[in-house]
Amino acid sequence: MSKAKTLQTGHVGLNVTDLDRSLAFYREVFDFEVLAEGKDDGRRWAFLGRDAQLLVTLWQQSEGTFDTARPGLHHLSFQVESIDEVKATEQVLRGLGAEFTYQGVVPHGESAASGGIFFTDPDGIRLEIYAPTGADPAAAPTAGAPTCGFF
């Protein structure tokens, strides 16, 4: 018997500083539905997803901002079907005043067809939305390493 034969990511849990602010951001950017929510003082949380599938959990139990110098989450990435979807999401993010790592859609590496946008949520957590094709022929912002690796 092999262990974890059908392994796949279930959901990703993120610590946030202000649940209301994060809920507004993640719902607007990703069209997530609130599947469940805890509203007790000192124990606020939300389960977010689509079509009843849990994708992200938010836990209001942090202070400060995301620290890239500490071990833990590097970035959270979401795949969409087309570059047009990436660009539409970019416009939503610009309207929200989100911070971007690179300007516009960038490929995952030199001569790569896949690529997307890299940005942060209100707590500074690094996020990516990408499509498997359509990012070429733009130049990659990082030579000799994946675009999503060192940012």
TrEMBL record:
InterPro entries (UniProt xref): Fosfomycin_Res_Enzymes, Glyas_Bleomycin-R_OHBP_Dase, Glyas_Fos-R_dOase_dom, VOC_core
Residue span(s) of domain VOC: 8-132
Keywords: Metal-binding
Transmembrane segments: none
SUPFAM superfamilies in UniProt: Glyoxalase/Bleomycin resistance protein/Dihydroxybiphenyl dioxygenase (SSF54593)
Entry keyword annotation includes Transmembrane helix: no
Pfam families given in the database record: Glyoxalase
Domain of life per record: Bacteria
One MF annotation (Gene Ontology) recorded for this entry: metal ion binding
Gene3D superfamilies, A to Z: 2,3-Dihydroxybiphenyl 1,2-Dioxygenase, domain 1
Official protein name in the record: VOC family protein
UniProt source species: Streptomyces antnestii
